[in-house]
Amino acid sequence: MTLATIAGHEVHVDDEGFMTKYEEWDDGLAKQLAANIGIDLTDRHLDAIHFLREDYLAVGETPTLRRVTTVGGIPTKELFQLFPKKPAKKMAYVAGLPKPVGCV
Amino acid sequence: MTLTMEAPVPVFEDKATDRKLAIICSKGSLDMAYPGLVLANAALGEGIETHLFFTFWGFDMINKETMGHLQFTPLGNPATHMPPMLMGLPGMTSFATHMMKKQIEGIDIPGVPEFLEMITDAGGHLWACRMSADMMHIDETDLYDRVEGIISATDFIELSEGAQTIFI
Hints:
Chain A is mainly alpha-helical. Chain A has helices at residues 27-36, 43-59, 65-70, 76-82, 87-94; strands at 2-6, 9-13.
C-alpha cells in the first residue's frame, strides 16, 4: 500500500492501482478512475458504483457481479455494457474497493 | 512537503486477448453441472469468449423438463464418507439432492436455469449436440430457449478452434 496521486488527490493504492482506504474515495475520484480505464462515467455507472460501496460497508467485502444484479437490481447485460469485458473488477476499481473474491 | 507519484492504472484489457474457452458438459447430475457453469461464468467475467457444448447426459442441463430438477446421488460416491450400504436406500437420492441444493442456495449460487440465464446475459454461448438430440429424439422445442442451436461434432470442432477446451 503506497501513497499516490489521483486527480491531484493523495490517496493510498495497492500495486495495481486499486484504492485501499474506503474513506479516501469520492464521486470526483470515481470520475477520474473511470476515465483512467476508458469509461465516461454516467449516472447509471454511479448507480452500480454506489451499490458496491454501500454493500461493501454492510457486508465487509466487494459484491460479486451476481450480487450487483440480484441485490443491487442492475441486470447482468447492462453491467457488461457499462463496464465492458471485466465488469466486476472494473467496478471495484472505480468504486475504490478491492477486487471481489467470490466465485459466482 | 512530500512528492507522490501518479497512481498506477490496472491493466484490464491485456494485449487485446483473444483467449477463448469451450466447455463440454456431458453429465446430468446436480454436482457435475456446477463445475462447467461456475467456470463459464468466471471466464465471461474476465472478458473471455465462452462456449458451452451439451452432450449426452449434459442434455439434462438444457432440457426444459429436467434442467430445474437435476439430482445428486451419494450412491457409489466415496467422497460422501458415508456407509455405502445406506446410500442405496429408498429416498436417499432425493434427500441428498435436497441437502446439496440447500448448501448451494446457502452460499447464494443460483439454480441451473438461472445460472444459464446469467451466463447468456454475460454473452456466453450454449450449444446442443446433434447426436445426443437424435438419440434422445429431442429437438429445439424441448430445449432451453437460449440454446443457440443443435450442432454436430464437426461444427463444435470448428467453433472451438483456438479455444481451451474443458471436458466435464
